[in-house]
Amino acid sequence: MAFLGVSIYGSLAALNPLLVIGSIFKAPIPYFSACLLGALALGLGSLASGIAQSLDVRLLSVILSNFTAIYSLIVLARVLGHFYFRNQGRLNWK
């Protein structure tokens, strides 16, 4: 939630614990489902990165490992964006 707040406000002032915790309690079920999807994306990315690093070809394993790390972060950003789009009325940040 803090990462999303900083992205929306464009300032580190969004790291205020009252804003972050208050926003979590405004939309708890969608927030925790977004957290689960994000954890799943990062977990699968980590698993794929581990498999890619076990390859014998060093250059290919580095490229695949970095690709899976970047892709899992893109998926995480998509999940956070979708969470905000669906719940911006509840969060009332602007």
Order of helices and strands: HHHH
How far apart are the first and last residues' alpha carbons, in Å? Answer: 15 Å
What is the structural class? mainly alpha
Number of helical regions: 4
Concise summary:
This protein has 94 residues and is an all-alpha fold. It is built from four helices and no strands.
Q: What would your notes on this structure say?
A:
There is one protein chain. The protein has a domain at 27-91. It has 94 residues and is an all-alpha fold. It has four helices and no strands. The chain is elongated and about 50 Å long. The model has no long low-confidence stretch (mean pLDDT 88). Helix 3 (28-53) runs antiparallel to helix 4 (58-91).
Fold topology:
Layout: H1 2-9, H2 17-26, H3 28-53, H4 58-91
List keywords for this structure.
single chain, 94 residues, mainly alpha, 4 helices, 83% helix
